[in-house]
Structures are given as C-alpha cells and as structure tokens.
C-alpha cells in the first residue's frame, strides 16, 4: 500500500498573476496548470542527513560573525513544527532560511538599499526537523525594506523559508511574517494570497513561554506540508 | 481527513541564492563553502554523461537571471534509488549573463510506466508558487508516457533539443510557445 499526496488547493495559494505585484506580470504563465496525480517521480525527492549540518548552521546570530562578535539586532529564536495537513509531524526534512539584516538590507550584490550591511550578519541558515517535526533557529529580527514595485512599497519584516518534504510534490517556498506588522496588510506580495485565514498562517506569534529571560525572545511558526489523501494499491501508483 | 491547510506559498524573491546557494551568492565559507545540489556527478557513475542547459524566458522575451532551478530525475536504471557517484537531485542558479542553468548529469532511464524525463522546479522573483514542469528527450516512447500525453498538442514544449554535449531546453513562461506547467 502506498499513500498518495493530497491534491493542492490552488485557491488557497496566491495565483500566478497578481497584478499589484508587478514582477508577476511577465512571469505568470497564462495557461492553467495541468493537473496529474503524483507519480513515483514527484512522490520521491532528495534526502538530507544531519551530517550535512555545521554547528552554527542554525544560528544566524553567529554563523557569519567574527570570533567573539555577533550580528546586530533584536535577538530572536524562531521555532515551530513541520507538520502535514493531517497534523502528523514531518521529521528529517531540510529547512533553509534567508533574510535581510536588522536594518532591512540583504547581503547581495543586487541590494543597494541605504541601510548598511552588518559585517557580522550573512543572512542564511538551515536546520533539519527533529523526530517530532520540531525545528528552530536563532537570528536577529529582520527590518522592513523598500522595494521597486512602482509605488511606495515596503516589505513587512519577513524570513524566507525553503522546505523539502518526502517528495517533490510537497516541496515549497514561503515567507514568515511577524505578528502586529502593519505592512502585512499593505504588501502586494502578501495580499496576493486570496484569503486572510491563509495569510494568518504565515504570521509568527510572539511566544513568551519559549522566550528566555534576559537573553532572547521567541517567535512560533508552524509549517504545513501537503498531507496524504487516499491509500491506493501499489499497482495503481505506476504511471498515473 | 485533513484538518490543517498547507502553508500558502510565497515568492522566493530576488535573493533566493542567499539561502539556497550562499557560496554562489558570495557568502564566503558559509555551509562549508559548498552549495547543496551544485554537483550531481559526485564520483564515477555508470551511465551517459550529459550537459542539460535550461533557460527560462519571460513574457518580454528576456531570460530570467535571478531564478533558482532544481531538477529531480531517475538514474540511468530508471529508478530513484541510490546510484553510486550520482545524485538524482540538482540545483543551479540561472546565469546572470546568459540566463542558463547548467546541470552536469546522467541521461535518465525510464521509470516503470513512464518515458525518460527530468522533473523541473523553478523558484524566482515574480513567481508566487514554484513552477513545475518536466523535460523529455527526443524519444518515440514519449507518446506512451501518461504525463507527456496529458499535455496534448502542447507536449512539444516539454521536449529538449539535442545540443553539443547533451541537451538544451527553453522554458517559456508566456506567449505562443508557453511551456506546459503542472499542478502535481
Ligand atoms: Fe525578502
């Protein structure tokens, strides 16, 4: 018996064309996506072991810093669980993150924002979900930043996430936002998501229970991958 | 019955390389100085080595130079198990000058019930949810492949072109030649 990945609810996700997000105008395919049920190609995918990870890969405060120094900005730990739609933990999966520094500047040759680079902040990290699906990394809270979209556009503070699942059908990239950020309601990238309930799932909550006194504040962010829909016999899995 | 909803997708943005290929992005020494997926040939595997060059063209006819392309493919035996000296997964940026994402890989075999193919996953600024497509090869068996035939009279957009050291493939995001993208 093999489980099949549940179909994706495309109405829950941003459509390819979101006219207020100008970059989508020339990059959105105009034909509808053709559906097929995942074959063994999409049910499988790369696996990554803990041996991959360096000691500071999950610590953006220190992983680009000179010895004895640290990134500047509000210290936070971002943590949560990687789950599937059936609320089952998804262990052993690679989570990669990237973000701007506390001033809203990326360490990237194409980012020319006025805010200065922080010599001790690189802006990337990674970790692998634990047996119970939990993950965490330490970082500094990124700043909002302006971006060229034709108007006075500022991204809410956010952290980019890239997540692997059991197979490519579950693979995803998304962004995490911060509770209370007024830019969430103004951002055409966020608002490309059709519903407020969906947007709300990308908003991390301040988590005082996991906050360490006199050290670091915690934000909680759970990530949900597609679940298993039906159970089929192996011989129906071949081809379609 | 599902009681949670999948996390909604958001664009990878223009700086995806910082997180997924930091060495390429210029972050010296990050993650041991090796970008994941940069090399698919890691030893001396059996099979035919090919260069697969992928270019993505936007609605204005310009190549994307800030995208990240991942591929996932069967090994020469048509399976997704381990092939010594080879990784079935590769990840490349599109080149800032030419727009080409270049994969040094092995010619895929045919998985049971399917023709030889490479699954392609594209993330970039302006793409709200990563695009999924497949690359097939000039091969008569494509006509009996269930995904290829599903693409109907647009299936030709999925077939790579024979090139010097392997194959090249152009993915059109819009227009007359728009590539078939899948919801899978
Ligand atoms: Fe960003």
Automatic annotation (TrEMBL), chain A:
The keyword Oxidoreductase applies. Residues 8-32 form the Protocatechuate 3,4-dioxygenase beta subunit N-terminal domain. It comes from Puniceibacterium antarcticum. This is Protocatechuate 3,4-dioxygenase subunit beta. Gene3D superfamilies: Aromatic compound dioxygenase (2.60.130.10). The keyword Oxidoreductase applies. GO terms for molecular function: ferric iron binding; protocatechuate 3,4-dioxygenase activity. Pfam families: Dioxygenase_C, PCDO_beta_N. GO terms for biological process: 3,4-dihydroxybenzoate catabolic process. It comes from the Bacteria. Belongs to the intradiol ring-cleavage dioxygenase family.
From TrEMBL, chain B:
Residues 38-152 form the Intradiol ring-cleavage dioxygenases domain. It comes from the Bacteria. Pfam families: Dioxygenase_C (PF00775). GO terms for molecular function: ferric iron binding; protocatechuate 3,4-dioxygenase activity. InterPro entries: Intradiol_dOase_C, Intradiol_dOase_core, Intradiol_RC_Dioxygenase, Protocat_dOase_a. Keywords: Dioxygenase, Oxidoreductase. PANTHER family: DIOXYGENASE, PUTATIVE (AFU_ORTHOLOGUE AFUA_2G02910)-RELATED, PROTOCATECHUATE 3,4-DIOXYGENASE ALPHA CHAIN. Belongs to the intradiol ring-cleavage dioxygenase family. This is Intradiol ring-cleavage dioxygenases domain-containing protein. It comes from Puniceibacterium antarcticum.
